[in-house]
Design goal:
Elements (H helix, E strand, L loop, with lengths): L2 E6 L7 H15 L3 E6 L27 H10 L2 E7 L7 H8 L12 E7 L5 H15 L6 E8 L12 H12 L1
Parallel strand pairs: 1-2, 1-3, 3-4, 4-5
């Protein structure tokens, strides 16, 4: 049994990214895994100040917001699922800020599996890949993190359009096979 932490970076409640995340969670729970989903839009979270007071082994941030309570859950997770819509060929600002705020965990995320899930109006893999590249930049900063899957939810503009697509089915299967 694995502990799976899904991070949803969409500011739009019940949008296509949330639906993909829920679909992955459904497959993972069915497979016997423990799943927690965090919606960044619900967090009180400031930008990283770049002060580096969190390093080398503090595992906490000097800011007093919701991130410090989340850091231990990120550490405990076996699988980190990063789910975001594409904004201007990248992740949402919320997702980028979240990733920046994981700086206190630098050097402590070894051996984690990572799944990327992105949704976009455009079905172009170029656009979806560039958003995944932003998340890959985060993963590349840590030793021995492995990308297990990439789910492309392109062509989904209106809420709910991702349901019934190949990406929706794939999210479920990824959850089942983690």
């Amino acid at each position: 049994m694995k502990r799976i932490l899904i991070i949803c970076g969409s500011p739009r409640k019940n949008g296509n990214s949330d639906l993909l995340a829920a679909r992955l969670a459904s497959g993972a729970v069915e497979a016997g895994h423990t799943v927690e989903t965090v919606y960044i839009r619900d967090l009180r979270m400031g930008f990283c100040h770049g002060c580096l007071a969190c390093l080398p082994d503090r595992k906490a941030c000097v800011q007093r917001d919701d991130i410090n309570a989340l850091l231990p859950r990120v550490l405990e997770a076996d699988v980190l699922v990063l789910c975001t819509p594409v904004y201007y060929y990248s992740v949402t600002g919320q997702m980028k800020t979240f990733l920046d705020r994981l700086n206190p965990l630098y050097g402590h995320l070894r051996g984690k599996d990572v799944v990327y899930m992105v949704t976009a109006m455009d079905d172009s893999h170029a656009q979806l890949d560039r958003a995944m590249d932003a998340m890959q930049g985060f993963v590349d900063c840590f030793d021995d993190m492995r990308v297990r899957a990439r789910v492309y939810g392109g062509g989904a503009t209106e809420k709910g359009e991702v349901v019934g697509t190949q990406a929706y089915d794939e999210a479920y299967l990824v959850g089942k096979t983690l």
